[in-house]
Amino acid sequence: MSLPILVVDDSFTVRMGLAEMLEAAGLSVTACATGAEARAALADGQFSLAILDVLLPDADGIELLKEIRGTASAAETAVMLLSTEAEVRDRVRGLRTGADEYIGKPYDPNHVVARALELAGRLAPSAPTTETVLLIDDSATFREALKATLEEAGYHVAAAASGEEGLGLAAFVRPAAVVVDGVLPGIDGPTVIRRIRFDAALRRVPCLLLTASEEEDAELRALEAGADAFVRKDHDTAVILAKFKAMLRSAGAQAGGEIAQSLLGPKKILAVEGSESHLERTAAAVRACGYDVALARSGEEALELLAVQPVDCILLDARMPGIGGLETCRRLKDIPVMRETPVIMLGDAGDADSLLEALGAGADDFISKASEVEVLQARVAAQLRRKLFEEESRLHRAQQLQRELEAAETRAAKEIAEVRAALVEELEMKNKELDSFAYSVAHDLRAPLRSIDGFSQALLEDYTEKLDDQGRQYLGYVRESAQQMAELIDNLLSLSRITRSEVQRESIDLGALARKIGSRLEQRDPDRKVALVVADGLTAQADGHLMTIVFENLLGNAWKFTRDRAEARVEVGAATSEGQTAFFVRDNGAGFDMAYSSKLFGVFQRLHSAKEFEGTGIGLATVQRVIRRHGGRIWAEGEVDRGAAFFFTLPNGAGGPGALAHG
Amino acid sequence: MDEKIILLVEDNPKDEALTLRALKKGNILNEVIVAHDGAEALDYLFGRGEDGNLRALPQLILLDLKMPKVDGLEVLAKMRSNERTRLLPVVILTTSAEDRDRLDGYRLGANSYVRKPVDFVQFTEAVTQLGLYWLVLNIPPPNTGR
Asked: Which CATH superfamily is domain B6-137 in?
């Protein structure tokens, strides 16, 4: 479904001429002569494209453009401005206001229609309405015969006698299929197909290559060029038609409505000359080839224009007022996106220096201003062709690079997956090893300890009269040590279990947990009077079992180290640290020297002697493991004899370093 | 039914000595038969004595888990799958407090799971309580064996 095109021009000839051509191309057109009519039409319906004359009797085309751009319903409408004013200022103003295209009068109607099709198609992507087949063959007899066969079969046929003509037509008619002869006077059939394959807008069009019977490697060449099918020319046209239909059937499945700027589409040339008469002559010569021409009268104007409108080729006068042609060229070639645009410098005849200067400034070609018009036209065509080739090969390189990149990415992804799998396997193996190690420790290390303790006790009981006081004391030491070691083993086991266990987060009331553990501590030590103050609303996403271990250790420590206080006080709460909630357990006990704070969390690190405060030196290491497994941080503040505070964070979510690393 | 026998399944001779001592200290003077590994335990429970008869079933089995040849869990599994020993009270008495051992033990039908404390005083206390509970307080299921 394609929206109509609005044509607004006060000249009856222009209006009707464009309308007829657009309608012939299968588009519906609303033609208006004045701004008022145009406004009424715009208020009434939607358009895919508006072609506006800049100078209207009752309005300014650019004002109209502003209104279109300001209307929500028309925001999608493409706008093409037509103007007799060749002033760069007007062009720049039009393009800056939001025009999609600006074409100077006089224009080549074919060019306007081609651009109109592009612009309208951009907004209403629809498959070719009629099944147009592009037929390229240099033999008039054969061409007519095949054309007749195809038309009889219900296809609409556009015919061309050469590859160049065919490609130009392809951009215009957007064929549903192409039939091309392998051998042609200019570029041959395979090259035509290759170009079509490089063109973003055309590359999905199925192509049938016609080959001469004597070519042995015809099939190979056809497939290499990207043809979807090939057929020998000496076959009956009915056979060719059958093959053609088969190709369409198989291509039908993958046909996509891809719309893109065609490389073979209408070309825009910028002519820059200081002298008005030269400019006219150059513009006329280029326009005669069917190109659209934009005019500039100085280098500054040219640069200003190029900032808003890209062109396909630039004709640049070497000697101009202002910054001049050479400097303009240098500046142009400094702009990354402009570097690929061919620049043909126009200079004085027979002046070897100006040629060298021009090439030195980065121009792609140099021709004398005195040259024949045909020379100019041929050079422009050559530069456009070169640009096309470069774009083709760039596209080719880009595709190649893309393929290599994709292959490399696939390889890399595979390698990463393999490495990951190996790491996971290794990790699992290590965990298993650790598991069985811990299991052995639990069993085999404790059993002899029980013997040491048990038989020491037996000695004390059964042989007490044979031992003196010192002997009994020594045996007491043996038992004490065995029991201490058993406790160490138990703590180490619990530490290793934490490292291995899964963190299962749930919503936890840490305050309630602290109170529960506090009352357990009170029961265990009923003689102690400790004021436990727990703040409200201490909830976190954490593993309940692991958080119990944390509070058992932190509160246990707080209880232990406030032992000598007349009024022991333990506080549990939350503070904000670096934008995160930090929970804390604070006491007014023995405290510690901040100089040693880094040693607090190490395994077997103790800041108090066993005589002062008993302990295995594993508790805080265990707490730190738990916090790290949650992706959080833990730190401590304290002062000797002024108490200690332990802070920790529990970032929400499963992320954080603790989620992946076991440790 | 005559005397209440205790079957102690324990491979470590020192632990055996300590357990026997603990039972004595706790004044549990029942006959204790010691099997030094799982195979011996099964042999006692299902084999025939010198007189060709099946042996008297114990009132209580104290079962260690980690043993050579046939381990404690295997013994337990065999007992629970045999009609004659299916209901015998079994107390797992072991060094391990690992979750999976506890789980496996209870799953296979252990009646209790006790971890041997390192402290001998506590150990004696534990064994005494076990004996008192299972031999005195607890009323066993009606005798279905023999």
From this structure: Response regulator (3.40.50.2300)
